[in-house]
Amino acid sequence: MARVVDCIAKLYKAERIALSDLDLGKLSAEKYVELAKAKPGNLDEILVLIRMLREQLRTQLRAAPPGDDKRQVSG
Questions:
Q1: Rounded to 5°, angle at Cα 26 from 9 and 67
Q2: What does each C-alpha distance from 6 to 21, 33, 54, 64, 72 come to in angstroms?
Q3: What's the number of CA atoms in the CB half-sphere (13 Å) around residue 68?
Q4: Per residue in 13-28, pLDDT tens?
């Protein structure tokens, strides 16, 4: 879970989008569930899936205009 949290925090920082600790936790939990559903078998598979999740999230963030709900955490 820590790798997912760290990945998301770094992504938002790189994209210069503010993310509260609460929202970071919510988003990380959502992404962790997605990761767990894929049932990775080893660390290498986990790292690949985390990179894929990061790129999907980056694409969503960049596609959404500032102030759009897609740039904010649901919930």
A1: 70
A2: 12, 16, 11, 22, 18
A3: 9
A4: 999 999 999 999 999 9
